[in-house]
Automatic annotation (TrEMBL):
Database matches in PROSITE patterns: ABC_TRANSPORTER_2 (PS50893)
A GO molecular-function descriptor: ATP binding
Protein name: ABC transporter ATP-binding protein
Species of provenance: Streptomyces celluloflavus
Segments of this protein annotated with the region Disordered: 1-37, 345-410
Biased composition (Basic and acidic residues): 345-357
UniProt KW keywords: ATP-binding, Nucleotide-binding, Transport
Keyword Plastid set for record: no
Gene3D superfamilies listed in its UniProt record: P-loop containing nucleotide triphosphate hydrolases (3.40.50.300)
Superkingdom of the organism of origin: Bacteria
Occurrences of domain ABC transporter (ranges): 64-303
Amino acid sequence: MTRPEGTPPAATGPTREPATGAASGAASARPRPAAPAGLAELERRAAARRGRPEYGHDALISCDRLVRVFSTDGVEVQALQGLDLLVAEGELMALVGASGSGKSTLMNILAGQDVPTAGAAKVAGRDLLTMDAKARLGYRRDVVGFVWQQTTRNLLPYLTALQNVTLPMQLRGGRRRAERTKAAGELLSMLSLDHCRDRRPHQLSGGEQQRTAIAVALANTPSVLLADEPTGELDSHTAEQVFGAFRTANAELGTTIVIVTHDQAVADEVRRAVAIRDGRTSSEVLRRTERDSATGQESLVAREYAMLDRAGRLQLPAEYTRSLGMAHRVLLELESDHIGVWPDHTADGAARTRGEGGGDGVSGGGSGGGSGGGDARGDSDGGGAGPVGGAGPVSGAGPVSGAAGEPGAG
Ligand SMILES: Nc1ncnc2c1ncn2[C@@H]1O[C@H](COP(=O)(O)OP(=O)(O)OP(=O)(O)O)[C@@H](O)[C@H]1O
C-alpha cells in the first residue's frame, strides 16, 4: 500500500517506532478483552440491531457484501468477493486497483449493465438486484450516466457534438426540440465546448471528445456519473482538462461522480480514493484541508485508512505484515483506544512463519509490548473514532497498531 508522499503515516497503520519502556509500563494496565457473550447477551444485541437503520440508508450508492461470479467453460472467477462501498450524494471519488481487481465489474453493475450474483446494491433508492428489464432501462436512461475510456464508444460519429448531447434527451422524451437544444448548448458551454457544437467527433481532439462525452452522460441530469478510465488514452495535460470537466459537473450540478482510474494524478485530485483488491475494498485515501494553527497556512493532508468490512474483516497491508513477519495468525489485543495486532510468537506460529519464508517476525523487536497506540492524531473526517471496530466485542476508537515483541511483556 503506497502512502501519498509527504503525508503522515496512515491513521490505521502500525507504528514503526521501537517499543519503549514507558509504553511497556502502560501495557500492564491494559484493559482485558471482554469475555465471550452469552446467548442472552447475543439476543439482546440482535434485538438492538433490529432497531438500527439499514446499512447505507443515507448513502446514494450502497454496495453491501457484493459478489459477482463469472463462469466460463466450467471455471469460476470471483470478480467481486463481498465488496462493501458507500458513496454519499454529491461526492466526487475515485476507484483504484490493480488490473483484474474487479473495478470494471463493479462499474458495470452500478451502470445497470450487469447483475450481481449475491449481496445488495442500491443507487438512488433503486435496487440493482431486483429491477426488471423495464426498470433497468429507465435506470440507465435517467439515474446513471456513463463515460467509457474509448472515446469511440461514447459518441456517435455521424452526429455533431450538440446532436450527440440532445440524443439522450430525445430518447427520453418530454422536452421540445428548442428546449433540448438550449439545454445541450448550456451543458457544452459549462464544459467550455462552445466551439465544438457543430463539429463531429473526428473533428474534435481526444480531450474534447471526452468532455463532450461527459456532456452526453449529463444530458438527462443523472444522479450519478460513472466513468471507467476516462483519461486512459490521453496525455497528462489533456487528462487534467477532462478531470476539470468532472469537477465542474460535480460543483455546478451537484452530480455524484465515481471515476475508475489508473492515473495517479486523477486519484490525487479527489478527496476520497478507494482501493479495490481481490474484489473487495481494501483501503481509502482521504484528503482534507488543514490549517496550521500557528501560521494560519492551509495545506492538503492525505491519510490512508484500511477498510473494515461488515463482517469485521480488515486487510492488513502486505508491506506491514511482511515487515513484522506476520502470517497465518496474529494476536489481537483490545486496548482502551485501539486494537493491538501482534506477530504470533507461539512455537508453532514461528515455525509456520519460517516455513513460509515470511521472516522471523521479531526483527528489531523490543522487549516491551508498547504499541505506541493512543496516537493523538485527531481526524475531523470522522475517521478518528469509528472506522476501527470489529466483530463481536472487539471494537476500538483509534489506530490499529502492532509492534514486534510480545504484548505486555515489559
Ligand atoms: N465476462 C467475464 N467473464 C469471465 N471473467 C470475467 C468477466 N469479466 C471480468 N472477468 C474476470 O473478473 C476479474 C475482474 O475483472 P475486471 O475487469 O472487473 O477487473 P478490473 O479491475 O476492471 O481490471 P482492469 O483494470 O484491467 O480493467 C478478472 O479476473 C477478469 O478476468
